[in-house]
Specification:
The protein is of the alpha/beta class and about 475 residues long. It folds into two domains: about 300 residues, no CATH class; about 55 residues, no CATH class. It contains twelve helices and 24 strands. The strands form three sheets. Strands 5, 6, 8, 9, 11, 12, 14, 16, 17, 19, 21 and 23 form a twelve-stranded mixed sheet that branches. A ten-stranded mixed sheet has the order 4-3-7-10-13-15-18-20-22-24. Strand 3 and strand 4 form a beta hairpin. About 55% of the residues are buried.
Length: about 475
């Protein structure tokens, strides 16, 4: 399932953006006319239009987060909210416009699809430009398409689950997404179906001052399994772009979902994402989250354990270089007895970079037999880098077992000296130390992604990007 993240990183951080003539571009700024235009252009049903307008009013009322990274530089009226790159979604790579196809060719997506993936959805700016899924999965009843197509073809599924896991009132950016969402994935796995190969979505911001607001909805019926992988990138500009996505996942009894993210946004992107899963009886939800790039990231994948013996895991890696703030972590809400959760966070700060772990574990009264383990480790590369930990443990049931541990350390001179005495350069020694530090999480990634994640870190350490 190898998407060449080394090529992705070089393109995103060094190459010029692709020259594009867009099929449709909305006016800059956010008003009720913007919301109406997006819905009208997509020819959506009345209920979705109403959902958007309610969310827009909620967005206007909601305050900006008063905690976490500095978001004061986001100007909502200086963004383009809808850029449609093509007239239709292609089913073969040859149908994709040449300028867009060239981007994905360099990233290796067509080759990865042939060798490793059960399906691909590629989004460029606001809309999907390419989508495919293996025929044998379609025959089993698997639905994997972009959300806009999903709303047209499967309105009963979208209407049943849309905004049930992440309502518009959850936070200001969830409201914004609900008002102006475009693109994302609809993934439905029938009962008992186990998808052998991962399904991949790839999100690209190419233009300047763009907001990307994909909406992803995943429903795993009882006893099913799927692994969904997403990658993200954007070229460098002097002005900021905004990526504010929402991911809603429903894991039904005995089902298992793994959601892997390897993001490498350029350092002018504000990346503010709400990801949440409802997990029913004996279901399993696994978030594997790799965060590199972006100016600011705020992302806390959450599991709501709502059925007996449900299980949730959050594995998070964050790397912050100079001028970056990675505010990441996870949340586990135990809403049923005998549920278990694990949150493991590894962060690396370099230069003036800052990482923050922000997490929540909540066990409601009467939820006996619950277990939760939280581990957050931070590595500082020099005296100017910074790491913070903001854990919240809200335990209202005594018959539980909850643990939390955190460590913060700097790279030791003895370690560097030992490795350099064996013939390694300082850069190689640093990269080896970091690779060892993140290994407990990296080994949970598919082999190809783990190798490329290490390569990305080597490039960051070498100062050849950003």
């Amino acid at each position: 399932m190898k998407v060449n993240l080394q090529q992705l990183n070089r393109q995103a951080q060094k190459e010029k953006p692709d020259e594009m003539d867009y099929f449709h571009t909305s006016a800059k700024g956010l008003t009720d006319k913007t919301v109406k235009e997006i819905s009208h252009y997509k020819n959506e049903p009345a209920w979705m239009q109403e959902e958007r307008f309610r969310a827009y009013q909620t967005f206007l009322r909601q305050p900006m987060p008063a905690w976490g990274p500095d978001l004061s530089k986001i100007d909502f009226n200086d963004l383009y909210y809808y850029l449609r790159p093509t007239g239709q979604t292609a089913r073969s790579w040859s149908e994709v416009p040449e300028a867009i196809r060239h981007t994905y060719d360099r990233l290796g997506l067509p080759e990865a699809e042939k060798k490793y993936l059960g399906g691909v959805m590629a989004q460029y700016e606001s809309d999907a430009v390419y989508h495919s899924v293996q025929k044998k999965l379609e025959k089993k009843g698997v639905i994997f398409t972009d959300m806009d197509t999903g709303l047209r073809r499967y309105p009963e599924i979208v209407r049943k689950y849309f905004s049930t896991v992440v309502p518009a009132g959850d936070n200001k950016f969830a409201a914004l997404n609900t008002a102006v969402w475009s693109g994302g994935s609809l993934l439905y796995i029938p009962a008992g179906v186990k998808v052998e190969f991962p399904l991949q979505a790839y999100f690209r911001i190419n233009a300047e001052k763009v907001g990307q607001f994909e909406r992803t909805l995943i429903i795993a019926e009882p006893g099913s399994f799927v692994h969904y992988v997403e990658g993200c990138t954007a070229p460098v500009y002097s002005t900021g772009s905004l990526h504010a996505a929402v991911v809603e996942i429903i894991v039904k009894p005995g089902a298992r979902v793994r959601y892997t993210t390897v993001q490498n946004w350029s350092k002018n992107v504000y990346n503010i994402v709400t990801k949440r899963a409802f997990v029913m009886e004996e279901g399993v939800m696994e978030w594997v989250d790799g965060n590199l790039g972006s100016k600011v990231t705020m992302k806390y994948p959450s599991v709501y354990l709502l059925g007996r013996k449900a299980r949730g895991e959050v594995l998070s890696i964050a790397f912050a270089g100079s001028g970056q703030h990675q505010d990441a972590g996870g949340k586990a809400i135990h809403g049923a007895p005998e549920t278990s959760s694990s949150i493991i966070s590894k962060s690396v700060s370099r230069g003036s970079g800052r990482t923050s772990y922000r997490g929540l574990v909540r066990v409601a009264k009467g939820m006996a037999g619950c277990r939760s383990n939280v581990v957050c480790d931070a590595l500082l590369m020099n005296k100017n880098s910074r790491s913070d930990t903001y854990p919240t443990m809200d335990i209202r049931e005594s018959a539980t077992r909850v643990s939390h541990e955190a460590t913060v350390g700097r790279v030791g001179e003895e370690q560097l000296f030992y490795l350099m005495s064996r013939g390694l350069s300082e850069q190689e020694a640093m990269s080896m130390i970091i690779s060892g530090f993140i290994e407990p999480i990296a080994r949970q990634l598919p082999v190809e992604f783990a190798a490329e994640l290490n390569k990305l870190i080597e490039l960051e350490m070498g100062g050849r990007v950003g």
